Amino acid sequence: MKRITRHWRNFRALVHHRRVQLALSIRVTIAALVALALAQFLQLPLPLWAVLTAVIVTQMSVGRSLKATFDYLAGTLGGAIYGGAIGVLIPHASELALLAVLALAVAPLAFIAAINPRFSVAPVTAIIVLLIPIMTHATPVASAVDRVMEVAIGGITGLIVSFFLLPSNAHPLVAAAAARTLNQMARALGELVAGLTHGLDMDSLHRIQDGIGQALVQMNAVGAEAEHERSAGLAVGPDTGPLLRTLLRLRHDLVMVGRAAITPLPEGLATRLTSPIENLGAAFADYLRASGTALLARLGPPPLDSLESALDAFSGEMAALRREGLTRSLPADVAERFFALGFVFEQMHHNVKDLERCVAEWAGSPAETGRDNSRSD
């Protein structure tokens, strides 16, 4: 009995953890069944395309389904019109003529699809419009109309199912993607800060920066879906632009830290700066993680007090080194990295304040009032 209870508890935990993916699988299944039923009811020649379209346009979020539907319909309409026109205007009774017509239909559409991915389905549609009449003895115009009808039925079905059955909005996905990106930045910052005193090889640096870049690309894609929902009036939520731009600026800060970490600081400077740098890096990393947690929970931003205290200690040590003249004898490249380090941590502090405002906006509460947003050295 205890084993059954434990397995049931584990199953419920798995369902809760994968609830978004489970909801998507249910929506895709229902969309496919409804599209097939409608295609058979309307006696469409090839119900297959209605079902495939419904599956293709039923996406993780309503915004992504909306974009996929419009893109698929636009590509299908363009391919059907062009392919139907080629089939009607150019005779292709012989095999050689058919090859020439097929090349004439596919080449321009493939070129357009390479420029604008929205029309990626257009060459496929043109091929179907040209070749299906050979098998069904229909006219190119009828083939084009049937193709548009099949895709329209499938696209509309997928969109309606996405909107009404276990709908998933993109804004929570943006918050989740932002939290993952912030956690990845926090981990990367720990490695980069260690490199300031011990050095960091180029392979490790590229691995760190590429991981953050991929996370931002995924987040931009989800953010675009959220904005599709907002512009269509399907969802209400904060503008994703400020959050995306803030994370991009923080990524640029990490790039600057990485450049400084390629070569470790001289021993004289490292002895004085190792502890302040480690404390400041840990404070930044903790704040990034806490901000990601706050975004997921729609809570207010975490306090900046410990981070600003660590920044004060680091800035104070940097100023002391300059007053003592320890930077005057440094080679030009080392001195450049030294002063760039102070600049990048100050810049990160400003960008973290922007992150604080973004988290407050996503929490639905105004940013803390009375905080002094200006900082004196």
Structural class: mainly alpha
The assigned CATH architecture of the largest domain is Up-down Bundle
Spatial separation of the terminal alpha carbons: 65 Å
How many separate domains make up the residues?
Answer: 2
The whole-number mean of residue pLDDT values reads 86
Q: Please give the share of residues in helix.
A: over 70%
Identify the CATH class of the largest domain: Mainly Alpha
Q: How many strand units?
A: 0
Q: Helix count, per DSSP?
A: 13
> What gross morphology would you assign?
elongated
Give me the Rg, rounded: 28 Å
Q: How would you sum up the major sheet? A: none
Q: Within the CATH hierarchy, at the fold level, what is the topology of the largest domain?
A: Methane Monooxygenase Hydroxylase, Chain G, domain 1
Order of helices and strands: HHHHHHHHHHHHH
Strand content: under 5%
The unreliable regions are 365-377
